[in-house]
UniProtKB/TrEMBL annotation, chain A:
All residue ranges annotated as the Transglutaminase-like domain in the record: 175-246
Organism, as annotated: Novosphingobium sediminicola
Lineage, opening ranks: Bacteria, Pseudomonadati, Pseudomonadota, Alphaproteobacteria, Sphingomonadales
Name of this protein: Transglutaminase-like putative cysteine protease
SMART domains assigned to the protein according to its UniProt record, in alphabetical order: TGc
Residues annotated as signal peptide: none
Keywords tagged on the record: Hydrolase, Protease
Keyword field contains Iron: no
GO molecular function: peptidase activity
A single BP term in Gene Ontology: proteolysis
UniProtKB/TrEMBL annotation, chain B:
Domain Circularly permuted ATP-grasp type: 89-468
Protein name per Swiss-Prot or TrEMBL: Putative circularly permuted ATP-grasp superfamily protein/putative alpha-E superfamily protein
Superkingdom of this protein's organism: Bacteria
Residues forming coiled coils: none
Stretches assigned to the DUF403 domain: 519-812
SUPFAM superfamilies to which the protein is assigned, alphabetical: Glutathione synthetase ATP-binding domain-like
Gene3D superfamilies per UniProt: 3.40.50.11290
């Protein structure tokens, strides 16, 4: 599949702020089966400095500095991307016990390696409640893919999608107690559950192609950024994306942007500014399929 | 000094009765004869001191501790506690220490090499010497530091290590600390208190001095800085941090500015501290903040104590860091399972100082072994964080788990084995501790410190910080409930060591300025002065209401209406509640003095002043701080006599503080800001009180009260034979520059202070605060007293308030309006 993505964010500060310094993690990092073209980033007002580079995770980061005083900022990113159909998941994946052992044994400290996604992270601290809830899915003989499917299905079935119940700073534990939240919360719950049983789990941010209801036109800009979880399924299979919000594996409808331990590692936008103001944020995302 | 005669006194050898417990292995009992002799000399000396002074050795030391203002907090403490130091140090002979020293230096070299590999080529992980999960599992592993090299290749500058001494005198490493060298300041303080409290005793036993170590540490840091004569700052998380008193003490001792993240900013990849004279370069930071919190743009975005873009400064070689961010990864307990083998791999040497045997359960063989020997081992979280199945982060004895706890632990370990490690059980040897008037054996652990010297070489502090356990438990925190701390003295046979050390330091270049005054410190000094002065003015008003002046027939502040006006003033100042009308004058006075919930009351003001002062601890002389932090005298009576006595006591305290400030503080910007705050508050109070009394009661009562509050009665009488009249009194209180309590005197002082502060203007024109103070001064020096009517007083008051704002705007930090612990002055 080929898509044209347009992501626009506008930030309104309650009063004038100075020296805003931001990290933008909007450009898709290199990922198997994806090719990014014509990425363009536009800020208004334009930044004094902009610097692009790789972050410490599977993430691309633009660092921008705006020196002038401002009360409003708009950030627009556009790109085209080719997403290939992922290889079909093999019939028999390794079982939980062998994944657990392999994750500990593999001498790989890189951001693609399993070791980095085995432990608590700032927004996904361990939770005994989640661990216990997820225990039935992680029998040692269970295949890791089956476990992932069962866990994903359970989240999809037991949690309600509710855009008002949580915020970007909600931890997995809080979302779990409420059994409601958004894609970010569901991904965090899935990550905490998998890690509790020794399975490496990562947080993925990206975009999702949404299909209009039958007979209706696609609404432009109605989408938002999406997030899902990835489980490490052994060296042969590697990372597999599980989208608990939609109860599907990440496929050609999912456009990968970044992968880290949790939201905080790869937040699309964060930063600091001087001034005591609060800020409001509005986002519009358009994922447009392109005919070849 | 080298030829002092030995003490004549025949000490009672209280160590003679010291219990012998061969199994435990005691530092004194097992000491070679020449070292045991030092123990006896020390014990005898302490005894003699106690006899000579009539105080116990503990009391002697407690006085030193109180004088030095030594304190600490335990987790959960709201208030600082005074420091529990036992007078008897641990005495370690030079020979025994030499082995420890060599082992520590070797271990420092190893850790340096391990860290260099983890953030460099990562061969150790790739080749299977360290599992990737052991590195990734540490919450202090900073992935963003990969490939970021220190300019001179030095990752570690300060290394603290906990040591245990076994029953047979074998030393072992319990834990490595690279994040924070907690205890290094307390080791210093313990030594200071002990050497001050025990006369020449420490020299008599030839205890090695600590000063050389700190000199080396400082030089080692300087040597890594990009500029000559670098500015090295100590970066603190702030005064609410548990070890803040230690950090403040270290900063003061080493002469490093004590800064918080918000004092610093990064401009073009260089680090600056905001000072009253504009931004000044900082070349090195001794950080007391975790890597994750150092820079919200490059690490944890939620950190509010870091400095945005600080990572750019160190990555660009513009600021040296002690320690290099990320090095604390190796302090995870799990690392201890892999370090012993790395001595051979990386250094080609056998370890001189073993660490406590450790098994990381992330390995299948190890996990099996641990499960099989659970009863013989201590089980601990592998990465120092709470884990399922263990109640705390402290190691738990496998044998002491209940069957249920054991089952839960094994189940949790089966799911996440990598979160656990096991350690052998270690028996600690004991040391004689002076408890009451007897020596008792107490198990101990020792925190030792290693630093880099000027040429990058490793230097071990000849001593350290000993924790004498009350429970026999292994120390993993600095101090536990009921524990004692002790100094550690490394003793030489003769006295030679000492003199060779001093010369290492080299001659510093001469300088006279007061060093860096961070904008925030200036702010705090200013408000310290204002709060103190407001408290003093409130007490003076109270004293006046109670009739404490020298006037013969003033039972209380003369006319009832004058008194009522003063009480109204106290209410306006927030020193009395809205329902003060129901109180008698004495009750009102008591409330204004001691009620903590009255925001403008003396108790609350002094409390706020003390809180602001906490962050200035590195700038105040210990005597000054001791008086400033003294608690209010107890007061449960409404009797005017008692109240008056307390008011007088407080006024004396204020006088003592002003005196110390005037006599002891260098006339630098710090002193100026302290005095500025005081002068502005005094000038404002004068205007305010004069206005408040306008038209109240008989003129003579009113003017007497004014003279009384501003301590000018005697001067008035020596000048005028008449009863107080308006113009002479106002001239004396407002316009006479020779009266140190007059308005013009305050404003002149303010003008001198501001004129002496650094200017940011290159055109040499006066800055706003200076222009504004001159505008206040002009009428005071040019008009006559009959021209001072109420509107003019109101105008001066307004201008003074504007001046205070203008000083804030020019010299202090501009954002962060709500500084924690700060309450606005009312009225």
């Amino acid at each position: 599949m080929r898509y044209r993505i347009h992501h626009s964010t506008s930030l309104l500060y309650d009063s004038v702020v100075r020296l805003a310094r931001l990290n933008l993690r909007l450009k898709p990092a290199p990922w198997p089966g994806q090719r990014v073209e014509n990425f363009a980033l536009k800020l208004d007002p334009p930044p004094a400095e902009i610097e692009a580079g790789d972050g410490p995770w599977i993430v691309h980061r633009h660092r921008v500095i705006l020196r002038e005083a401002l009360s409003e900022l708009s950030i627009e990113s556009r790109f085209e991307i080719e997403v290939n159909e992922p290889a079909p998941a093999p019939e028999d994946a390794p079982d939980i016990a062998s994944i657990r052992a392999a994750a500990l044994a593999l001498p790989d400290l890189s951001a693609m390696g399993p070791a980095s996604y085995l432990f608590a992270s700032p927004m996904a601290p361990p939770s005994a409640a989640i661990a216990e809830w997820a225990a039935p899915f992680f029998g040692p003989d269970q295949s890791v893919l089956a476990a992932g499917h069962a866990l994903m299905g359970a989240i999809h079935a037991q949690f309600s999608y509710d855009g008002t119940a949580t915020s970007v700073t909600t931890t997995a534990k809080d979302a779990f107690e409420q059994k409601r939240g958004v894609c970010q919360d569901f991904a965090h719950v899935m990550i905490v559950a998998a890690r509790a049983h020794g399975i490496p789990a990562a947080y993925v941010s990206g975009y999702l192609r949404t299909l209009p209801p039958p007979g209706q036109p696609r609404l432009v800009g109605a989408d938002a950024m999406h997030a899902w979880a990835a489980l490490w399924c052994g060296q042969d299979i590697g990372w597999v994306g599980f989208d608990p919000t939609n109860d599907v594996l990440a496929g050609t409808d999912h456009i990968f942007v970044a992968m880290g331990r949790d939201y905080a590692d790869i937040a699309p936008i964060d930063g600091v500014f001087m001034g005591g103001a609060g800020q409001r944020l509005s986002v519009s995302v358009d994922v447009e399929p392109v005919e070849d | 000094m080298a030829t002092r005669a030995p003490r004549k006194a025949q000490p009672v050898d209280r160590l003679k009765d010291y219990p012998v417990d061969v199994d435990a292995g005691d530092l004194f009992r097992h000491a070679p004869p020449e070292v045991a002799a030092k123990w006896r000399m020390m014990a005898g000396g302490l005894n003699t001191l106690a006899q000579d002074s009539g105080l116990s050795a503990q009391e002697l030391l407690a006085r030193q501790i109180a004088d030095m203002g030594m304190s600490f907090r335990m987790t959960g403490d709201a208030e600082e506690r005074s420091w529990p130091l036992t007078p008897m140090p641990l005495i370690v002979g030079a020979q025994e220490w030499a082995k420890v020293e060599a082992g520590l230096v070797q271990r420092a070299r190893l850790l340096e090499a391990v860290v260099g590999d983890i953030y460099g080529p990562q061969d150790l992980v790739r080749e299977g010497h360290i599992p990737a999960a052991v590195v990734a599992g540490s919450r202090y592993f900073a992935r963003a530091m990969s490939g970021v090299l220190p300019r001179r290749g030095h990752y570690i500058h300060v290394y603290a290590v906990d040591l245990a001494r076994g029953p047979h005198g074998q030393w072992r490493v319990l834990g490595d600390r690279l994040r924070l060298a907690n205890g290094v300041g307390y080791a210093l303080e313990n030594r200071l208190a002990l050497s001050r409290g025990t006369g020449s005793l420490l020299s008599d036993i030839h205890a090695r001095r600590l000063a050389g170590f700190f000199g080396q540490l400082r030089q080692g840091l300087s040597a890594d800085c990009p500029r000559e004569s670098p500015r090295i700052a100590l970066l603190t998380p702030g005064r609410f941090n548990q070890s803040y008193p230690e950090q403040a003490h270290l900063a003061r001792y080493l002469g490093f500015p004590l800064v918080e993240g918000r004092d610093l900013s990064v401009i073009d990849g260089k680090l600056y501290v905001r000072t009253i004279g504009g931004p000044k370069r900082v070349d090195a930071l001794w950080r007391w903040i975790d890597t994750n919190s150092l820079d919200p743009l490059n690490f944890d975005a939620r950190s509010t104590i870091g400095v945005p873009d600080l990572a750019d400064c160190w990555a660009g070689g513009q600021v040296a860091m002690a320690n290099w961010p990320g090095v604390e990864v190796v302090e995870a307990p799990a690392f201890a399972a892999f370090l012993p083998r790395l001595f051979q791999t990386l250094l080609g040497e056998d370890p001189l100082l073993p660490n406590v045997a450790t098994w990381w359960c992330g390995g299948e063989t190890e996990a099996d072994l641990v499960r099989g020997r659970l009863d013989e081992l201590m089980i601990a979280p592998a990465f120092g964080q709470r884990v399922e199945g263990l109640a705390t982060v402290q190691p738990a004895h496998g044998a002491q788990l209940t069957p249920e706890a054991r089952e839960a632990l094994l189940a949790a370990m089966a799911r996440r084995p990598m979160d656990y490690c096991a350690q052998e059980i270690i028996n600690l040897s004991t040391t004689p501790a002076l408890i009451e008037d007897r020596f008792e054996p107490r198990p101990f652990t020792l925190r030792a410190f290693v630093a880099r010297g000027a040429d990058g070489e490793w230097v071990v502090m000849p001593g350290g910080f000993a924790r004498l356990s009350s429970s026999g438990k292994i120390a993993s925190t600095l101090m536990g409930e009921g524990d004692l701390s002790a100094d550690v003295c490394v003793v030489d046979e003769a006295d030679e060591e000492r003199f060779s050390r001093v010369t290492l330091t080299g001659a510093p270049s001469i300088r006279r300025d007061g060093g860096v005054l961070a904008a925030q410190a200036a702010d705090n000094l200013f408000w310290f002065g204002r709060y103190g002065e407001r408290a003093e003015m409130t007490v003076r008003v109270v004293r006046s209401i109670l009739g404490g002046g020298i006037e013969v027939d003033a039972g209380a502040s003369g006319h009832p209406e004058v008194r009522a006006r003063l009480i109204e003033l106290l209410a306006n100042w927030g020193a009395l509640g809205p329902d003060h009308g129901a109180l008698s004058p004495a009750e009102a006075c008591r409330a204004a003095l001691v009620e903590h919930d009255l925001p403008g009351g003396v108790a609350a003001l002094l409390n706020t002043q003390r809180n602001v002062g906490q962050s200035l601890r590195d700038r105040f002389a210990p005597d000054f701080w001791r008086i400033a932090s003294r608690s209010l005298p107890a007061l449960d009576s409404h009797r005017p006599g008692v109240l008056l006595r307390v008011a007088r006591e407080l006024i004396e305290r204020f006088a003592a503080l002003s005196g110390l400030g005037a006599e002891d503080m260098v006339r630098g910007p710090a002193w100026r800001f302290l005095d500025l705050g005081r002068r502005i508050e005094r000038a404002l109070s004068l205007c305010r009180i004069a206005r408040q009394l306008e038209g109240a009661g008989e003129e003579s009562d009113r003017l007497n009260t004014l003279l009384d509050i501003f301590d000018s009665q005697i001067t008035y009488r020596s000048r005028y034979l008449s009863a107080p009249l308006r113009d002479p009194v106002y001239d004396l209180l407002l316009l006479d520059p020779d009266n140190p309590r007059s308005l013009v005197h305050q404003v002149q002082a303010i003008e001198r202070h501001i004129a002496a502060l650094p200017s940011l203007r290159e055109d040499a024109l006066p800055e706003a605060p200076l222009r504004e103070v001159r505008a206040v001064l002009a009428p005071l020096v040019s008009l006559t007293v009959d021209q001072f009517d109420e509107p003019r007083m109101v105008e001066i008051e307004m201008r003074l308030n504007a001046l205070s704002d203008s000083i804030s705007a020019r010299y202090f930090l501009q954002f962060d309006a709500a500084v924690a612990g700060r309450t606005p002055l009312q009225g």
